[in-house]
Amino acid sequence: MSAQSQVLVPAGPLNNYSEVAPMAQTAKGGTHPSTQAVFDLQFQHDLSLHVAGGNAGIIYINGEFWTSRWAQDTVWRFDTNGALLGHFILPNAVSGQGARAFTTDGTNVYASKNSNVIQIINPNTYMPTGTITSSSAVAIRTITYDATANGGAGGFWISNFGTDIVLISMTGSVLATIPAAVHGLTGMYGSAVDNTSSGGPYLWVSNQPGNPGAEIYQLELPSGIVGTQYYDINTNLGTATGLGGGIFYTSGLAAAPTLLTLLQGTPNYIIGFEAPSTVGVDEVNDDFSKSVSVFPSPAYSTVFVNHTANGESLIQIFDVTGKIVFETKSLEQENKIDVSKLTNGIYSVKVSTENGIGMKKFMKY
Q1: Is residue 201, in this structure, part of any structural domain at all?
Q2: Which of 74, 112, 172, 334 is the most buried (most CB within 10 A)?
Q3: Which residue in 253, 252, 255, 275 sits closest to 347, CA to CA?
Q4: Does residue 357 sit within a domain?
């Protein structure tokens, strides 16, 4: 965990550097039982020395964190230790609207701008390459890519504070709708699809129950019903005045998949939580993970996946969106896998055996 640094924005939750859901007042009631220890803290980075608060969107792409500040066009780049790498300017697709959220399909980055326009960005050149116009009435504040949508053609779940959650195609056509009355959330500021956790698929939502307020909810897909996992960031981390920002799901940062989220204003944090599974048997075994090796990294055409377990193993490779891009069963402890057809980027390898479940990551170039 990084040490806290000097805060460069006005103290307290009520400041001009944070964007608050106008109708958000109180936290959603009820209890949220869980079946295992959940939301383990993987890391916490204080951004205060580098950029003021009000960080809205977040993504992990090409080994970097990108964050955006609401209603502004600067996108800040950080390494995985929270050190500033630089920034670039994202021209407005809609006048006066900065990027509120990011998502990726593993090839492009998509930015939503509190309008019906989604901007397409090349993650290598940082340049816009086009736009998608949504036919939904929802002004897109939250956006997350779903590789399984539209029969595997892909699509986006979009929403804004207390609206319906709408699934649109890659060309902007409405495919499905989760009514606001079903999910009951009034301060949605970020969302992230999780197609890998047991019992899923899920939609993780960063919600503002008030100011201050920062919660993470698990919604079941495609119903939108609130699931068993819930986390109050301020209560559990003692941040008190934190305000919920963006959220992103990735399997490329740590041994277990990560829910990457932002606190706006004061404090001004990037936080990584272990994404909770709904059944304990699926939790990654840290001891077994130590016996799993994946090399070389970076890899060009081949990776070797080795482990110490006897018997059959299931080897799966996930891209940064959580999509399975390779899967095989093996009776061998040493496995050679062809990755030449994978696009460049960060991948996670999951090895499931009778000894436990282990995860490692590698870079493809």
Answers
A1: yes
A2: 112
A3: 252
A4: yes
